[in-house]
Design goal:
Layout: E1 6-10, H1 26-37, E2 41-42, H2 43-47, E3 54-58, E4 61-65, E5 68-72, E6 79-86, E7 99-105, H3 123-143, H4 159-176, H5 182-218, H6 220-234, H7 246-260
């Protein structure tokens, strides 16, 4: 395994509090020492904490878990603006949700010490972390657990829309597991549930937009601030980076400007 490796897929491993999942399973507990041995970090924990990647329905009960994982041994410095998106729609022929990871990458220098070189002396630190983790679990019953914000969350997202999304996913799961002529009926029910969900989302978007416009009409200062923010987001700024770091970027750019001016 190289020092710039990314692993992704269905590991069927539930990591509990590490990723914001409800429980851990045997495979997840077995993989944790392997993560430490290879200095692998779970990007779900930092970029999509608590966001479900698998959902299905059994006996009218929704089953959800976080078993599709992105793992990497790339350090935080080398990953620029990473984003992990977990889609909310189950219309891809699978109970697993589509996931996408985007990031900028800064290649390591040749003389950079590989992450694995630091693993040999980390046993004491790991013991301290395990103690802290046990203390945190002791506090959980008294302070509660806050679930992660789902990737499809918007300002207009309401409980009514959430209920419609649950019905839609349930209908889709029933269609996938149906056989024969029943499959046609389940597909029809799914399409009805999907249309209702989309209708509620579009109506909520319109209400949110009208509310936003009303606020701008009443407060001119907020209107100008919003216009400036939109204009600033559309402007693109050119940047220059060098594999050897910021200092090398300054030197290279200075040499280039000196040669053309």
């Amino acid at each position: 395994m190289t020092r710039d490796t990314i692993l992704c897929g269905d590991f069927n491993a539930r990591l509990g509090s590490l990723t914001g999942d409800a429980i851990s399973n045997a495979r997840g507990n077995a993989l944790k020492p392997w993560f430490d041995e290879h200095c692998l970090s779970v990007l779900n924990a930092s970029l999509a904490f608590g966001v479900t990647t698998y959902s299905s329905f059994r006996q009218q009960q929704e089953l959800s878990s976080i078993i599709d994982l992105f793992l990497t041994n790339i350090g935080d410095v080398a990953l620029v603006n990473p984003q992990l998106v977990v889609e909310s729609d189950l219309s891809l022929g699978s109970d697993h949700r589509l996931m996408s990871l985007t990031f900028g990458y800064v290649p390591p220098l040749d003389d950079t010490v590989a992450p694995g070189d630091f693993c040999s002396g980390s046993s004491a630190s790991m013991e301290a972390l395990e103690i802290d983790e046990r203390e945190a679990f002791g506090l959980t019953p008294s302070i509660g657990v806050k679930s992660g914000r789902p990737g499809h969350w918007k300002k207009y997202w309401t409980q009514e829309i959430q209920d419609a999304a649950t019905v839609r996913d349930h209908s889709y799961s029933q269609w996938r597991h149906a056989f024969g002529i029943v499959k046609v009926e389940k597909w029809s029910l799914y399409k009805i549930a999907h249309r209702k969900f989309r209708s509620l989302v579009q109506a909520a978007k319109r209400r949110s937009w009208k509310q936003f416009c009303g606020i701008l009409e009443k407060d001119f200062s907020k209107a100008t601030a919003a216009i400036k923010r939109i204009k600033r987001n559309k402007e693109s700024s050119a940047t220059y980076s060098h594999p050897d770091g910021p200092a090398a970027s300054v030197t290279a750019m200075g040499s280039h400007l000196a040669s053309v001016l």
